Amino acid sequence: MRCRPSGSGSKDPVDPDASGSAVPAVPPLDSDAMAAARQRQTELTKPPGALGRLEDLSIWLAGAQATCPPRPFARIRAVVIAGDHGVAQAGVSAFPSDVTAQMVSNFAAGGAAVNVLARQVGAAVRVVDVSVDTARPLTPGGVDGSAAPERYRVRRSSGRIDRTDALSVAEADAAFAVGRLIADEEIDAGADLLVPGEMGIGNTTPAATIVALLCDREPIEVVGRGTGIDDQRWMLKTAAIRDAMRRGRPFTGDAHSVLRIVGGADLLALAGLLAQSAVRRTPVILDGVIVCAAALAAERIAPGASQWWVAGTRSTEPAQGIALDALGLTPLVDAGLRLGEGTGALLAVPFLRAAQATLAEMATFDQAGVSGKAEVGGGQGDSGPAAGAP
């Protein structure tokens, strides 16, 4: 079956005059392409289900691209959203806030883990500063010559969420719009797979707070070790999450407000990017706890967006697992990562490539002249290729 041409990337641009978190309706995956992929899986030279999650991924990719079999990825983009957080002043991190700006420069120079892993899978890295606490320019914008990171800066550092709102209403709207604009820019330039990442000292504290509020959990259930904090800092972090939750609890019915009050510019930009990518029919691999916290909010803001995402990695941060469970997503990789940046998501790229290639390139039983699964009493015994199939 030949499915209709891909709808991936169909333009539904951001209205610069729009306010708040309003986004167009999220389109569904293409059911015809998924049905065709599901049928093709039964015809390939293997027992049914023998390729496990690769089969599920191939069907998902067919639905996302609206074609069966799906095409190889042509342009994979890792987008690292950077921002500082005032709550770092509460002693919740093992590193000083200066590290955020230093790491943004490291990303731009191609020397961070995300750059190395991106090179392994043929992805390009773009870094965007939405709220880094520095006055100095952080150029260039990426190893591919993209715009300077600070081009989309909303403010210098988000507010200290245990004491005040992370952002004003106008700043929150601007940050969400920035994320949507970044998605549009990447997709308009040909991106067919997006890998959002992040960088920001103290950012696991707002991420955990968001997950706790949106999933009705207690601070002790979501707090993790972040940058490798000791017990004393862990207690400070737990207290900061508790205090931030008190401030954010009246707003749990409005995910955009939760992001504004206890999140930050980076989390709002990530949510905007995730929502707009789904609107634009472009698949996304989710990374660690910060991206997943933003994804949890983005799904509330743009219902149905999560069908366009796959979970790349399981983080050691407890809040990430809670968020993924709420989204109904199971990670592809569980390697004990807690770095962020998009690193875990990039490790999942080969899984998606394998899923695409096996569906597209494997021979069918008819093409290979191989006998299919034996029927009971059909006389093929145990010698056929499908013997022992689940």
TrEMBL record:
Keywords: Cobalamin biosynthesis, Glycosyltransferase, Transferase. Its EC number is 2.4.2.21. Pathway: Nucleoside biosynthesis; alpha-ribazole biosynthesis; alpha-ribazole from 5,6-dimethylbenzimidazole: step 1/2. It catalyses: 5,6-dimethylbenzimidazole + nicotinate beta-D-ribonucleotide = alpha-ribazole 5'-phosphate + nicotinate + H(+). GO terms for biological process: cobalamin biosynthetic process. Residues 1-49 are annotated as: Disordered. The active site is at E341 (proton acceptor). One of its GO terms (molecular function) is nicotinate-nucleotide-dimethylbenzimidazole phosphoribosyltransferase activity. The keyword Transferase applies. Catalyzes the synthesis of alpha-ribazole-5'-phosphate from nicotinate mononucleotide (NAMN) and 5,6-dimethylbenzimidazole (DMB). Belongs to the CobT family. This is Nicotinate-nucleotide--dimethylbenzimidazole phosphoribosyltransferase.
